[in-house]
Amino acid sequence: LQAKGVTKVGVRLKVEMLLKATIPYGESVDTLPLATRTDRLYIEDAVATQIQECYVDQSELELANVLRFVRFDRVVVKIGGPRVWASGTISEINADNPEDPDCQAKIPYVVRIDPPNGRLVHVADDVNSLICAEVCFGGKADAVLFTLYCLPSKQSKIRRFCAGERVACAVGDGTVDAAGTVWAAGTVLDIDRSVRVDAKEPLADLECKGKAVTGTPVVPYCVQLDSGYQVLVHRDEHWLVRDLALQPEGARQQAGGVRCLKRLEKRQRGDAWEVIDHVTRRVRSMTPDSGDESE
Fold this sequence. Notes:
Layout: H1 8-20, H2 34-54, H3 58-63, E1 74-80, E2 84-96, E3 106-113, E4 120-123, E5 131-133, H4 143-150, E6 166-172, E7 181-194, H5 203-208, E8 218-225, E9 230-233, E10 241-243, E11 250-254, E12 258-259, E13 264-269, E14 272-277, E15 282-285
Helix pairs in contact: 1-2
């Protein structure tokens, strides 16, 4: 399909049509057996991964050795104005500078801010004072403020973890001016934690800094890291928190192309291979003729 010039959106629509054709007449995805629904989620995510890899051209791969982020990475970007920062997704790298009338100058990133805003932000330089990785914030004075900046407008009511469970959290790599992120081990202390518990200053003061605080802001988890400090997990998403039994400590996102962010990962156990789904926390054995997990 790519060779025929079909866009990645067109590929996704084609796959969705094929998957819908597998649903028996008179049924919906929700009424399918659990195993069938799991298979469908696996197929959809595997296809999405292939599409993403297929549409990243060679120039982007070369830039990945220089820039800290690639397309589809989750980041927090400085947007200016009263709110100052917002979370979003890298939409484009090495983009044309809109302020250059000759269209010769380039900027490292274009970021699409999360809803309800949804606008594009042009990032002039690849520095932490303008853009940084979205992680679980904690251990610093501005942790609560950045947590509030990144809170989604709507939170899922379903929680993947319970208090006391061992998890791996996405955090900065520990350097003074963190250039990358790591998976750090910890224990879930609290579920649906009120941000007011962790605020080192009244939330009314945070409003003055540009983040309107209404009601009682709640984050899915508060995690005590083995390194000694606590972090707030503002989204229950696999790119921020994972089962420690399935995701060991280590590099998560580093300049030069190191990435440990996929929902589906393949690992070897003895002579066998298995695929891990970091959302459902399920592990599926691979048969000898299964090949790569993206097939």
